[in-house]
Design goal:
mainly alpha, 7 helices
Length: about 180
């Protein structure tokens, strides 16, 4: 059960840290497009947006992990009340370390740099130099600046919506997995 809980916790962390998804670098991106993309990302304040998103995820993750792991324990229909109580106690003991590990992940100073470095080729292979320049002009405009100013809130609320929709499905999947593991 410990191995399955660790695996499930890893799945939760990966699922909820959607900001961490990165593209495979383009083998031969046009250097001018790459430079324009970096400039666009700076005008978008993408680093700040990503840092705000990671901070929000860092704050929400402990409660999400605890709720998910406790739901797995509670859904084990074969476990006695004593066994469930023991499992809850072990989870409570493990949560500080798991919380510390996820905090270290989300606050790693190289994380945003690594993600941005991986994202530059994605933009460079998706948009032309002219399109990148148009995007940069948009983000420099009043509407673009309003969008950037609202982006952390929009992303945070979008994450809350995503979690509200996804978590019951993930919990159901984890409970079924835990049941199949424990039931054997």
């Amino acid at each position: 059960m410990k191995k399955s809980l660790a695996a499930i916790a890893s799945v939760i962390a990966v699922t909820c840290a959607s900001a961490a998804f990165a593209a495979t670098p383009a083998p031969s991106a046009d250097p001018a497009v790459v430079a324009a993309t970096r400039q666009m990302m700076e005008s978008m304040k993408l680093r700040d947006v990503m840092l705000a998103s990671l901070k929000q995820a860092d704050q929400q993750m402990p409660a999400q992990i605890a709720a998910s792991l406790n739901a797995i324990v509670d859904s084990d229909s074969t476990a006695s009340a004593d066994k469930k109580a023991e499992a809850h106690k072990k989870l409570q003991e493990a949560l500080p370390k798991l919380t510390s590990q996820t905090h270290a992940l989300f606050t790693d100073p190289t994380l945003v740099d690594d993600m941005l470095a991986e994202m530059v080729p994605l933009y460079a292979e998706t948009y032309t130099l002219d399109e990148i320049r148009q995007l940069s002009a948009f983000y420099a405009s009043p509407l673009g600046q309003k969008m950037l100013a609202n982006m952390p809130t929009l992303m945070s609320r979008s994450m809350e919506i995503s979690n509200r929709v996804m978590m019951p499905r993930i919990q159901k999947m984890m409970a079924q997995t835990a049941q199949s593991i424990v039931g054997k």
